[in-house]
Amino acid sequence: MKSLQFPQQTNVYHGKVRDVYTIGQDWLVMVASNRISAFDVILPKPIPYKGQVLNQIAAFMLEATKDICPNWLVDVPAANVSIGKKCTPYKIEMVVRGNVVGHAWRTYSSGQRTLCGVTMPEGLKENDFFPSPIITPSTKAAEGHDEDISKEEIIRQGLVSAADWEVLESYALQLFARGKEIAARRGLILADTKYEFGKIGDTIYLMDEVHTPDSSRYFYADGFEQRQASGEKQKQLSKEFVREWLIANNFMGKEGQSVPEMSDEWIDTISKRYIELFEKVTGKTFIPEQPSDDEIVTLVSEALNKIGAK
User: Fold this and answer.
1) How many domains does the chain have?
2) 142 part of a folded domain
3) For residue 203, is it within any domain?
């Protein structure tokens, strides 16, 4: 993967879908690529405008939730680039679920009624609402699959102190409630999502992307109850349709499996679905931008200079 070079750069990390540059000791530049991953595997072809969609939805949501808790974002100098504070991350993800869908449904339908130490009630159908949102944390793996973990195990292992857990839990539930409010105004249901947090000194910050299609699952509210009653599949806006296509083509990231061929038409479909989600979630018209590497370096350099990063 190609690396850019920014003033005062001290490190670069290429994640599955983002490239993260450390500036000095205190700042991060996050470049959202058009790479797409599923089942912890980077798929072979990029998705046009995906990085811009994720970056701009995240910026929109971070602005809309900054009264709930501090967040890392300081500036968005280019369509697919964010600059923010470098935090020491907690090695867990706070997964909040309002509906029994995805991993929660796969667990539930297998007959299990406990997920990450949380008891799920009897009598639920796929996509039904939980009586109230639940938090099902996962460990944040440097590579490979994230693993389910309970609150008690997180505290026992010292991944998060008991006092910090109380704060993380409160922030996660408040953020989810705000996310549901924002979604409801747009005719959507926020079904589940994940949050990442970090710390600077004694202050806990919300990090990374928030309420994006890569980190969240949305249902269309119109007709939701009727579809549930009749057993129809729910129409959703998320990356799940990509996972479903992969599963249908016998790929779940397991050893020996090969990623199916992605046609140009399928890539175009995925791109349009991401853009649809941007417009639906934010209420804004998507304006495609494709800044060159040189433009990104110039814009980021100017922004870093403005905030006095060194």
Assistant:
1) 1
2) yes
3) yes
Task: For residue 73, give Cα distances in angstroms to 58, 205, 206, 209, 217.
Answer: 9, 10, 9, 10, 23
d(CA 308, CA 234): 48
DSSP for 165-200? HHHHHHHHHHHHHHHHHHHHHTTEEEEEEEEEEEEE
Give the DSSP letter of residue 125.
Answer: P
Judged against a pLDDT cut of 90, whether residue 116 lies above it is answered with: yes
DSSP H helical segments within the chain, as ranges? 50-64, 103-109, 151-157, 162-185, 224-230, 240-248, 264-282, 293-307
- Give me the CATH number covering residue 104: 3.30.470.20
Query: What is the spatial distance between Cα 217 and Cα 170, in angstroms, rounded to a whole number?
Result: 21
The tokens describing 267, both together, are 């890539």
Determine whether 117 is exposed, middle or buried from the number of CB atoms within 10 Å of its CB (0-12, 13-18, 19+): middle
Check whether 298 has a pLDDT greater than 60.
Answer: yes
**pLDDT of 20-29, one tens digit each?**
999 999 999 9
Radius of gyration of the chain (CA): 19
137 is in which domain, residue-wise? 89-238
Note the pLDDT of residue 146: 77
Distance CA 241, CA 49 (A): 17
Binned at pLDDT 50, 70 and 90, residue 238 comes out as confident
Asked if residue 251 belongs to a domain, the reply is: no
Residue 277: per-residue pLDDT? 86
Query: Counting Cβ atoms within 10 Å, is residue 20 exposed (0-12), middle (13-18) or buried (19+)?
Result: middle
Residue 158 lies in a domain: yes
Once rounded to an integer, what is the mean pLDDT over residues 25-49?
Answer: 93
Amino acid at 74: V
How far CA 46 is from CA of 23, 52, 266, 289, 296, in Å, comes to 27, 13, 11, 15, 19
Structure tokens at 146: 């994230």
Contact criterion met (CB below 8 Å) for 115 and 148 = yes
